[in-house]
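Notes continue from the previous slide.

Worked example: a multi-chain complex. Inputs as given:
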Amino acid sequence: MSPRAVLIGPPGAGKSTVGRLLAGRLGTAFRDTDADVEAVAGKPVSDIFVEDGEERFRELEAEAVRRALTEHDGVLALGGGAVLSEETRELLAGHPVVYLEVGLSQAVQRVGLASARPLLVLNPRSRLKKLMDERRPVYEGLATVVVATDDREPGEVADEIAKGLRP
Ligand SMILES: Nc1ncnc2c1ncn2[C@@H]1O[C@H](COP(=O)(O)OP(=O)(O)OP(=O)(O)O)[C@@H](O)[C@H]1O
Ligand SMILES: O=C(O)C1=C[C@@H](O)[C@@H](O)[C@H](O)C1
Ligand SMILES: [Mg+2]
């Protein structure tokens, strides 16, 4: 079993939002590794960061990706930083990996200034810029498809991805 599409990209790219819409269009299930990690840990991502640390979160995340890539045959959204794991990058080879691109200003607007995202609590704009600059080459290197999302509704993005996927 393997996913029809794996969505990657920074916070605010729309992986969860577009992923859910795409799954609806394809008539398949949606899964999100952030939700899987929360289910295993029994608490929100932000609490895992605070109480257990980012390193522990990354371990749980890598495990969640490993499981989802073999158990799930629908649309899979990864957490924004899941691609930081070398194991995850290797496991993504051979899968349809869709990189949702977003520019800094729209990413900042989408995640909101009072962000619940633990990595963006302080100085969200500058932290998001640094994170996006560092990760862009990683996302690009893994992507089999790149889809721009600036100035586009989530539904339009989902339609473009659906058209480009193999039946
Ligand atoms: N194309 C879009 N246009 C406008 N708003 C969008 C678009 N895509 C997503 N959003 C909005 O941006 C916010 C963040 O989207 P979402 O949670 O799907 O991002 P994400 O990529 O899953 O982020 P994370 O890495 O933190 O999980 C949501 O409020 C969503 O409604
Ligand atoms: O970009 C990131 O590193 C993160 C994105 C979210 O999806 C969550 O996985 C968490 O907030 C970390
Ligand atoms: Mg998400």
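Summary box: Strands lie at 5-8, 30-32, 75-77, 97-101, 145-148. Helices lie at 15-26, 33-41, 45-52, 54-71, 86-92, 104-111, 124-142, 154-164.
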